[in-house]
Description:
The protein is α+β, with helices and mostly antiparallel strands. The protein has helices spanning 11-18, 22-73; strands spanning 81-87, 90-100, 106-117, 120-131. The chain has a 4-stranded antiparallel beta sheet with strand order 1-2-3-4, covered by helices on one side.
Amino acid sequence: MRCRPTTPRSSAARRAESAFTLAEALAALAFLAIVIPVAVHAVQVASLAGQVADRKLVAARVADRLLNELVVTGQWKQSASSGTVEENARVFRWNLRSESWDRDSLRLLTLQVNYQVQGKDYDVQLSTLMDNNQQ
């Protein structure tokens, strides 16, 4: 049995077989033109969601602390209370509403804490019932 020696191919022929065609390169660029803006938008949405969640957690803590303070000191009996609180170098606006409750002599206290994330307003509300006759 005799084997025929293979003829060495030229480097130009090997390069032509391993290169991308113009159509393949254009298709890859079109795909990237679609994928990159979608990925950047997804990162922006995830960043906003993370910031909102972080500020919401702090605002809930502020609301809990303020509501407890207003109840303990009896300041909740004032008709309208509002103000600002600075927490972690951020300013939170708060507003307390007192409404009559359907039953007994109870009052519904609702504390709303407002905060901003990337120029958008958000709020957290905490509510509790208080006895109107309590001193």
